[in-house]
Every structure is written in C-alpha cells, then in structure tokens.
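Q: Convert this sequence to structure tokens.
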Amino acid sequence: MKRKHKIMLARIIASAAATLVLNLIPLEGIPRLALFSAVYLAIGYDILFDALRGILNRRFLDENFLMAVATVGAFSLAIYSKSGDYNEAIAVMLFYQTGELFQSIAVGKSRRSIAALMDIRPDYANIEDAGELIKVDPSEVAIGTPITVRPGEKIPLDGIVISGNSSLDTSALTGESLPRSIGIGEEAISGCVNLSGVLRIRTTKEFGESTVSKILELVENASSRKSRSEKFISKFARVYTPAVCASALALAVIPPLIFGEWLLWLYRALTFLVISCPCALVISIPLSFFAGIGGASREGILIKGSNYLETLASVDCVALDKTGTLTRGVFEVTDVIENRIDREKLIEIAAHAECASSHPIAKSLISAYGRDIDRSRVKDIEELGGMGIVCEVDGVRVSVGNRKLIKDAPEYVGTRTAVYTSIDGEFAGIILISDIIKDNSRDAIASLKRIGVKRCIMLTGDSDAIAREVCRELGLDEYRASLLPADKISEVEALLSDKGKIAFVGDGINDAPVLARADIGIAMGAMGSDAAIEAADVVLMNDDPSGIAKAIGISRKCIRIVKQNIVFSLAVKFGCLALVAFGFANMWLGIFADVGVMVLAVLNAIRALKTD
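A:
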C-alpha cells in the first residue's frame, strides 16, 4: 500500500477511535464541542480546503462542496438545538473518506497495470566510442548508428541486427511469455528485453518514430478519447449537481412555509445534499474504461480509447484479410511432384537457380533446401518477367518458373502455387508452395462465433480457388477473392450498410485504408509497423488471430460493468433521495447507502482489469 493510502487509513482509524472514546466520556458544552470539532477537522480538513478553493475559483458545485455544506450544517444544527450530537457530521466524513480510499486504491491498481506497459520505455542506448560503451539518451541517437544491447537490457530503438544472436522477451509488447529468437539480418523492435547474447543493432528509426514511442504515445493518449457513456456522465453531472442543490434549497424553504418545523426540513435538506453526490457514477464509469484498457494492454491488445472499446463491444461482423492474418504470410514448400530426379535434388537445383531473387517463392525454395547456397555453381542467370528464371547450375541448363516458361509440363490443378522445373529442356518436376494457415486460425474463427459474432468474412487478393479452400478449412461464413485494396474498401462499405458494427482485421500495412474505413480497424501482428499503429483503432501486438475474440470479449465485459454501475447507482441514488425527502432516512443511513454504492461500484469497475 502506498504511503498516502497508509496515511489516509490511519486518519480514518484514529478519527473513528477518537469518536468512540469521546462518546464514552461524559463531556458537555464547550469542551465537548471543541474535542468533536478537532476530530471533525482531522478527518475532513482536506475536503473543507478543496471546497473553499472551489468556491474561490467559482467551481464549487462538486462533491467537496456538498460534503462541506452538509457536515458544517449538521454541526450547526447540533449547536443550535443544543443536542451535543456531533456524530452525524463526523460519520459522514468518515464514510466519505473510506469511499475515497477505496476509489484511490482501485485507480492505483488500474494505473499499475498501465505502468507495467510503460516499463518498456528504454532509459539509455549503448554506443561505442574509442572502444568503450557509453550510455546516451535514446533520443540523441541518429538513424544508422550501431548500438550495443547487452543481456538484460531493453532494446532502445528499432533496427537491424548486424552481429550476434539472442532471445528476446517480447511479453511487454505482445503479452506472450515465450522468448523470440533473433539473429543477423533480422529486425529488432524497441521495447523488447535482450535475454542472452550481446547484439549489435544498426538503428533504422529515430526514437520518436520507434515502435516503443508509438505504443507509449498510444496508451498515454487513450484516456483523451471519451466513450458515449463517459460523455453522458459528464453532461449528467453538470446538470444533476445544480439541480439537486436547487432541490435541497427548495426542500429547506418550501415545506416549512406550509408545515413549519424549520429545523426538521433544514436537516432533511442537508441530508439530501449529502447523498445527492453522484460520486459512484463519476468515479466508477471512467475507472471501468480505464481498467478495461489497462487489462487489455497486459494481453498485448492496445485499444486507442474508450470510444473504440465501446464500439468494439457491439461488433457483430468481422471481415479478415488472409495473408498475414489467417495465414503466416510466409510461403513454404508443401509437396513435390517428381519426374526425372528425386525430391531433394529437385529442390537443390531450384534453390540455386533462385539464389539471386528476393521473391517470397525464391526464399521458400532456399529455406526448403536448408543449407548454404554455393553461388559459384550458378552462372548466366536470366530473369524472364512474369515467367521465371533461366540459368546454368553445375553447367546444366535449368529453368524454374510457371507453366508459361515450361510449356511441355503437365498442368497442375489445385489450390497451391506450382513452381515448374526443367533440366536440359526436359520437364523435371513441380514444387508445390503454399501460404501456411496459422495453427490457431480455425480456433480463432470458432471463438468469434462462440461469443456471438454473426458473420466472419474473408477479403483477399488471392484466387477464388485458394480463397474457397481457406474458407472451407477455417469454417468462415463467406469470402471475397481477387480483391485489390480499393475493392476491399468497397466490400467493407457494402457491409457497413447493414445493421450492426463491422470490424476489419488486417496486417496494417497494405490494408491501412480499409482499417480506417471500418467501424473498428484491428491491426494484426503489428510489431514494428507504423502503418498499423497509425491506421488501426485496436492493435494486436502479437501474431495470434485468437486475440480478436479476446479483444471483443474484454470490451463486452467492460461495457456490461459500465451498464451495471449506471443502473445500480442511479436506482439507489434516486431511491435514497426520495426516502430522505419524505423523512424515511436520516443522514447516517443516507451516507452509508451512498458510500456503500460508491464502494460497490468501484469494486465492480476494477473487475475490468481481469481479462479471463
């Protein structure tokens, strides 16, 4: 518990104990008033000070003003009536401060979940000078500067590994506990923690443009984007507080003019003021959204504001890109149709023929070969646009490409990409390559349907045959194939015309326009992608499509909590106000009910931190 919480708890306990002791001591008159006043000031001095400051600044219609007027009024009534009963005023302050303590602890817990994410901010970068490592501010490191990251240190800036191999802890970014291996030539993302080997990284971005800065900016600004519920509560409070003050004044003046008994109606008016404070709503609703966003961030789900969280909760149609979202976006050799030579030899020749190409298919062939390429074996490489590669491998003429290049090859009919190969002008075989579906994509679609998403639609630029096969395998409801980026926007706009909200899920680079057009744009696997962080409303920092259903589930739980707090708080509030106005509740019962509602609402709000 923080120091300020300990101090407040000590004030509450000491004041409660002092009140109990004073009620046991037979005191009368001025000594009794002085001692009870001291206890009242001990527990409520900060409320009185804030109320006075609000009056001086002409912003006094808040809970501090209501508490101050009601408790000072209760003290004044006890003095005027010579009853010597100052317990009610002190009890009001005790209950209220107890509620404030609960609220402060709850907010602190929610902020700590955000602070865990904020811990990704790097403190320094190591640059080499005269053979020594010097720590500098990451914002002072220019693009292209080699930096050194030792085991246990955070990667301060985005860059490419130029030497070393290691494992990275990406949990602060993605929510995943498994380390990620990294080596020479691979991209290193700022905010990850280096676990083992020493890495030398050549920076590719300035600190202000790095992944860690973008994420921190996103989370820090999330509270500025208010939901409809929060805007409603703010407007409600601005109208409600003056209205109850006017009602309390009317209650203190009008009934006595008719029935008499000025002290009785003044007491009821003061009690009316005490329990009228809308603190349960004003505190618990923003806290619910804050806790929801904080809980999501711990799972590697970054939601840009409570308005997006609220919209996400009403999504009933999810449109998904295929490559990089439902599939790995990396081609792999899945089968070989042999003709003249065996599988291993065919892949070896094709990999060497494609050694100079940067095409994803070439990379998949080289990866399938699995050994170092000896470029001295390859000569006279000629790339034929839209057809393939012709070259010499070990002095033999080799052609690798599509069927336009090798016309005498049998035609492959299927959903995979076919790489035809010929040696010395004779057909040698077909290597089949496909974009592998992610292991958990099918479960992700099933999870979306399980939580009530009505339609799951795939929008892809791939052929109809491939799209149909993926749709069947994953259990999607529909698909649209052979789409250009502009076509995807048209499809999303057609879906927007239907009732309900639509979320589009894409990789955040090619799909940035569609992400921006949908009701909710969700970027998948966005580590290092500026386009994703900028265009999307929700960013899933890992590459796991199951995070889509989790994000929707978190948002729906948060909205349920918000609605529960609104209905419960208003029902109890107006019920207590009616009881007080008609004399069925005193100040003790009123403040106990009011603070009790606030405590219950706050405890309910912090449930949004739990994402299970």
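The first strand starts at residue 125 and ends at 129.
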